[in-house]
Amino acid sequence: MIGTELALMLRRRRVWLCWALLCLLPTVVAVLLATTRLAPPPGSGGAFLSAVLSDGQLFPAAALALVLPVFLPITVAIVSGDAVAGEASAGMLRYLLVRPVGRLRLLVAKLVSVAAFTLLAVVFVTVTSYVVGVLAFGVGPGAEIGGAGTITSLSGATLTPLQLVGRTAGTVGYLALCMLTLGAVGIFFSTLTDSPLAAALGVLAVVVTSAALQPLDAAEAVRTFLPTQHWLAWIDLFRDPPLLDAVRTGVEVQLGWIVVAFGAAWANFTTKDVTS
Amino acid sequence: MVPASSRTPGRPALSRRALLVGAGAAALVAAGSVAWPAGATSAPGPAALRDLVLASARRPYTGVAEASGRLGLPELPQLEQATALFTRTTRIRAFHAGPDRWRVDELTPAGERDTYHLGDTETLWDFGSGRLTRVTGSTSLRLPRAADLLPPDLARRILAAAAADPVTALPARRVAGRSAVGLRVTPVDPDTTVAHVDVWADAPTGLPLRVEVAGRADPGRPVLISELTSVDLTAPADDVLTPVLPPGGTAAEVRAVDLTGALRVLGPAAPPARLADRDRRPRYPDLPGVGVYGPGLSGFVLVPLTGRVAAQAVQGASGAGAVPIEVPTGRAVGVSTPLLSVAVRAGGRRGALLVGTVSPDVLARAVTELAGQPR
């Protein structure tokens, strides 16, 4: 079942289009920065963006910060909103359920498929932006001394290639988990409606609401539980020594959202009368 | 149609499962927001705790703090970084091996600004500019920085200043996963803007973990809260306390701002021995024209200005809604925030800036007395 869902996802043109567009945005930014050499002033703009001109190896981090607030959530919303509602709108859901497969198993397969999509999306952005960054800006002075993959951390200490790989892998995993939260919410909404568009818009409504509440003093009591609150915690992995407190809290909150959203999807879908 | 279950079609099962998920969600939220009891501690009395806190400067620790200020200070040109400390939330990481060996990082989403303090030398690292700056010399008066907002530093500074004010015990609470005992300092001076300062410290070591400063305008809502969100009471490794110039970074060396020389150029008059019924305290004797008046949490500082700077400040403050103060000569205005009061006087070649945790009336009286004195 999981294999079938993964194969289905990989065969969908819109999935590949989403990945391509996600990789395209940082590439456009890299081209503009490389041609104009106009980076945001230090301390402003996206994370790492002001530093990429001197070290292209930092561009994956800058690219992830670029796609994180809007583009990545939109693609996850599209794919996860389509998970169940897409089958229903195409009239395939009842045929799918005629097979001797439990509804929970079907939902798990859908969640794994969305998880694979988010993980691959973050990996593709990271890999393409590393290549684009090095081609556009070259390697920094750290790499000239310590070899390719050596960069300067936010704290000024030099990170070895092994440290860079480890911390980048941590970032990829963390962001994939953050996006899987949206995927689980999308699957839940997808069980509520037969319209993939409505489910995707529901996910985006959650993102916008969370982002709107974040800066409000009045929302202080619930701020920790907002799904977008911890999205930038991965930046702490590029400090020296790495700071894990915020990442740990972020992982706990994201796992909580995944459990609750997937549980809600299970509660709704396993008792739903499917007519589509 | 594909029924959900041949045994229990429809609503009852849905309700049970939805309730199960709802209960699980509620349990997760409760686990994340519940205030865990502090646990049994052999709490010292408030006076003993104050002494313990004041003696905790040599306690090594590593930790992360969050400081949130709601002082409502206006944006001041060239001083944005300093005022932001009191108007926004600042994330700070501290590596404290002792009073003369520490590193404090101000963490931002776009980088970090680190201060290394080793003996008499301070070194600043700014990721944004890629610059490592070694500061030589020292100055007795400087702008506030992130390190000043760390709970241990903030608590010790306040408790040392308010040594004569009474302290009372507060209920223990958990801070950064540790049991913390609390004390409240309530200034006795009726003219102070500070309603009370609450300090919670690690019971055995006296290391302050949380500080709340509340203003008289709204004592129930602290205007400054600083808390260590995580703390480890072991000494930091030596390598994290040593600044390193990264490849491609810029090294610079600057002298600490020579305030004494700058003030001497102004040729200020000696500050009066008494202003607004407050005696001048023997602080900053090396800074000509600078005077500190009043005790601890009900004091203010007098800083001389050039006539041009003072006139600009008066004009700018007037445009921002400052209250005019009637003075015998020149012009003066006052600005009040929940914790700090500010008054500026301009007139002739010299002016004066007064800032303190006293009511605006006290500063208005001080400005009037200053304007009436021969300069």
TrEMBL record, chain A:
Entry-linked PANTHER family: INTEGRAL MEMBRANE PROTEIN-RELATED (PTHR37305), MEMBRANE PROTEIN (PTHR37305:SF1)
Keyword Membrane: yes
TM annotation in the entry: 62-85, 106-139, 172-191, 197-216
Organism: Pseudonocardia dioxanivorans (strain ATCC 55486 / DSM 44775 / JCM 13855 / CB1190)
Assigned keywords, A-Z: Membrane, Transmembrane, Transmembrane helix
Gene Ontology cellular component terms for the protein in this record: plasma membrane
Domain of life: Bacteria
A Pfam match: ABC2_membrane_2
Molecular functions per Gene Ontology: ABC-type transporter activity
Name of the molecule in the record: ABC transporter membrane protein
From TrEMBL, chain B:
PROSITE patterns, per database record: TAT
Gene3D superfamilies documented for this protein: Lipoprotein localisation LolA/LolB/LppX
Domain of life: Bacteria
Name of the protein in its database record: MucB/RseB N-terminal domain-containing protein
